[in-house]
Amino acid sequence: MLSKKTIYLAQPRGFCAGVERAILIVEEALKKYGAPIYVRHEIIHNAYVVKDFESRGVVFINQLDKVPKGAILIFSAHGVSKAVRYEADERQFQVFDATCPLVAKVHAEVVSLKERGFQIIMIGHRGHPEVEGTMGQVDSSIHLIEHVPDVDQLTFDKDELLAYVTQTTLSVDETQEITAALIKKYPQIHAPKRQDICYATQNRQDAVKAMIPHVDIVIVVGSQNSSNSKRLQELASSLQVPAFLVDDPSQIKSEWFKSVKNIGVTAGASAPESLTSEIIDAINSRYRGSVVPMPGIEETISFSLPKGLLKAA
Ligand code: 0O3
Ligand code: SF4
User: Fold this and answer.
1) Full domain range(s) for residue 161
2) How far apart are CA 20 and CA 229, in angstroms?
3) CA 4 to centroid of ligand 2, rounded, Å
4) pTM over 0.85
5) CA angle 243–249–251, rounded 5-degree value
6) Which atom of ligand 2 is nearest to the CA of 102?
């Protein structure tokens, strides 16, 4: 018989309020209008969720010229640039916006900073749709940096009117290092009133830190293109615990568990709890493990649906 293992389950984990809302928007649009429903970009970065919606007539596109005139179009939770919004209006789609309100808050911040004459530094990952959407709120005056050494490359005057904003799903620790370097170089730089990294990102990273002393390995449930899930894997690895990001049980390898007794399981903000349960069941069926839920914050935040899709109930 294979040796028994203990599974520590991070709290909180899995869906955040922005993801719940985005999924509900697609569900309600399907109910109200029927297929096909078009979604710009993956509604959230989760392969299972995307595949499930595709099987029910949702069409994910990146270019709006793939969408027929008058169709229902949903913007993904990661948000879109002003140009995309404008093009959608021009092409006369009926748009529902699943941009997370906490991403939209950063959009508003960027617009207001530009209006007040600031040069804006965005901290984020190049090519990520949220970064493209946030930077695309203004047509100039915004500059992307990704890591601490990028701060050295900035050539603003010492007294420039400067501000920074960030992507919502970054590593809290790395972002603190970047902002410290920015403040050292430009002490006058304007910071957001509350950090742009959202509550869900912060809470899931804190939960991994709390779990680390108890475990020999961490399994993060989430897709490879999910920034916040990837940050959880990196965080565990940086704390010297091997960590693996998996979509579902088929990606789990027995060799990971050879000399391991305690297994940490968590899930990114876009990973359905059903997948986490399947992964726990797969480990348990092999090792007859026990599951220990970690104590942690209970999240109660929720966001309402856009007008026109409010649930009848
Ligand atoms: O931004 P990220 O790649 O983490 O996106 P996910 O995995 O879809 O998770 C939801 C987060 C989000 C929509 C932006 O904050
Ligand atoms: Fe919104 Fe944060 Fe969830 Fe992103 S991770 S959708 S910002 S709550």
Assistant:
1) 102-185
2) 16
3) 36
4) yes
5) 60
6) 7
Query: What type of residue is 73?
Result: L
Domain total for the chain?
Answer: 3
CA atoms within 13 A on the CB side of 191: 14
- Ranges of beta strands (E only) in 167-261 are 217-221, 243-246
Q: Is 200 close to ligand 2, i.e. is its CB under 6 Å away? A: yes
Does 86 share its domain with 163? Answer: no
Centroid of ligand 2 to alpha carbon of 101 (angstroms) = 8
Query: Per residue in 183-232, pLDDT tens?
Result: 999 999 999 999 999 999 999 999 999 999 999 999 999 999 999 999 99
CATH number of the domain within which 35 lies: 3.40.50.11270
Catalytic residue among 42, 109, 130, 234: 130
Q: Is the CB of 113 under 6 A from ligand 2?
A: no
130 is annotated as an active-site residue: yes
- Domain match, 87 and 112 both: no
- Does residue 309 belong to any structural domain of this protein? no
**What CATH number does residue 164 fall under?**
3.40.1010.20
Ligand 2 site-directed mutation target among 13, 15, 19, most atoms within 8 Å of CB = 19
